[in-house]
Amino acid sequence: MSEAVDDTVRAYDLDAAAYAGAGSQVPDSVRADIEHFAATIGTGARVLEIGSGGGRDARLMEELGLDVRRTDITPAFVALLREQGHACDLVDPLVDDVSSPQGPYDAVWANASLLHVARHHLSTVLSRLAAVTRAGGLLRLSVKEGDGEGWSTHGSIRNPRHFTYWRAPALEAVVAGAGWSGVSIRAGVAGKRGETWLELTAARGPVAA
Ligand SMILES: C[S@@+](CC[C@H](N)C(=O)[O-])C[C@H]1O[C@@H](n2cnc3c(N)ncnc32)[C@H](O)[C@@H]1O
């Protein structure tokens, strides 16, 4: 792990329970995306979640009939979800095996998690996610909108976390270059602190024979 990822994971590790408690309400735009996502892939579809955090989105996806594999890079989030009785795997999507013995997933859900991946690594992560998703399967991710990168301390996490900010054209190019097609981005989605977000959906392109 790079130093930035290491420090970011340590920051979440320290305050995972506070984060989970503070963020238990699904924001409207995320709820709408989950409902649309579930309706598109259908009941029983298998979803790989990257960065489950406090488990908020997985709960709603399951209520809507999806079969979610929870994962997180932060040990305290994994422990917290296990304490709640859920299976959850400690996974760094940049290096760890994300495949499933049951075969390719129908979709990948990565809300506000890949914003911690270094810009030069995002293509690798997205290609690895594409490799474990069936042709036509969905990707939905969100990142903070902006330029450059930086450390930020806010919310229930007391120590600084490292963020990579994205603009829509650059993000679209990276996603399309990593095996995903039909990329659609909603820009300027308002966050809680005056920041804006990019919410992206795409489909896994054809898989080479
Ligand atoms: C802002 S929280 C979002 C959690 C949850 N998805 C949500 O929307 O509430 C960021 C999540 O990304 C995870 N994360 C941190 N660094 C990461 C990395 N390099 N790759 C993937 N996930 C990472 C954190 O452990 C945490 O679960």
Automatic annotation (TrEMBL):
EC identifiers of the protein: 2.1.1.222, 2.1.1.64
Name of the top EC class for this enzyme: transferase
Source domain of life: Bacteria
Keyword Methyltransferase in annotation: yes
Coiled-coil boundaries: none
Gene3D superfamilies: Vaccinia Virus protein VP39
Protein keywords: Methyltransferase, Transferase
GO molecular function: 2-polyprenyl-6-hydroxyphenol methylase activity; 3-demethylubiquinol 3-O-methyltransferase activity
GO biological process, one term: methylation
PANTHER family associated with the record: TRANS-ACONITATE 2-METHYLTRANSFERASE, TRANS-ACONITATE 2-METHYLTRANSFERASE-RELATED
UniProt protein name: Class I SAM-dependent methyltransferase
Organism whose genome encodes this protein: Nocardioides astragali
